[in-house]
Known about the structure:
Keywords: Hydrolase, Magnesium, Metal-binding, Signal. Residues 1-30 form the signal peptide. It holds the Pfam family HAD. One of its GO terms (molecular function) is metal ion binding. InterPro entries: HAD-like_SerB, HAD-like_sf, HAD_sf. This protein is of the alpha/beta class and 336 residues long. It folds into two domains: 1-32; 40-83 and 161-328, Rossmann fold. It has 14 helices and eight strands. An eight-stranded mixed beta sheet has the order 2-5-4-3-1-6-7-8, with helices on both faces. β4 and β5 form a beta hairpin. It starts with a helix and ends in an 8-residue tail after the last helix.
Amino acid sequence: MFVKHDLLRLTRRAILAAAALLVAPAAALAQSDPLPSWNDTAPKAAIVEFVEKVSKEGSPDFVPEPERIAVFDNDGTLWVEHPMYVQLAFALDRVKAEAPSHPEWATTQPFQAVLEGDMKALTAAGEKGLLELIMATHAGMTTEQFQKIVTDWIATARDPRFKKPYTELVYQPMLELLAYLRANGFKTFIVSGGGIEFMRPWTEKVYGIPAEQVVGSSIKTQFEMKDGAPNLFRLPQVNFIDDKSGKPVGIQEHIGRRPIAAFGNSDGDLEMLQWTTLTDGARFGLIVHHTDAEREYAYDRDTDFGRLDLALDAAAINHWTVVSMKTDWKQIFPEK
């Protein structure tokens, strides 16, 4: 009886041991490359070298976990920003949806341009016109109502070129990078010029970044009691623009710690990269350079969305890592 029991126990142990021998090499292989969608080029090596030196205890560059803050731009860094910013596409759709309630829009710019599909006239409206569109489509409702509108739209909207949801047009290499950093004790934040309340409903599901770790532009909000219920009401007034020089300010106000790593793709990220890297200690700056017209888009100095000019020049001076989508990434989007 005891012999049989011991034999079964030993047999089971032997089977488990054999299984471990079979599984271990595969697991070790998977763990040996935390960035499988990255080609084995200089940017990947630079990322791994930085992460290892700041996360290894005993290293002269070791950084305690609470100080391992990494900040990411969103548009053009984590997901597509061409042919236009996704939030702009959202605003244009909102104008069309709300037009029956605003007959005056048919003869009022920039709304008329949106309704007639006149992109030339819309571009001519400039920042002032775009801001007018945002105020008309993002305000005059509670935060809960806006969140539902965004959630419904992001679930159904499709990119005009790839015919996929925008949330499927995130960059697989950057998703791996986010996971790799978090696995090594980093706290990851989005710091974007996009609207903070536009991003918060979906960033955790898409990027693993919760709402409280999203920093972005905002409009003014006020508390009010209505029919005995408390609400936060969105006003048609700008509160904060989290772009360019606003990004370091947003980081300080929302995060309260200076990052040790920053990731961007345009001149709108220049000051964030400077604030992060131009100081003492181990620091890392990275720019995603859109160089792949076949799999995504190719643009830098001459574009209306995501211009990369001053920051590209600054990268060479400040030793920031520049990632070429075409040569440094094996794949662009997640495979579905």
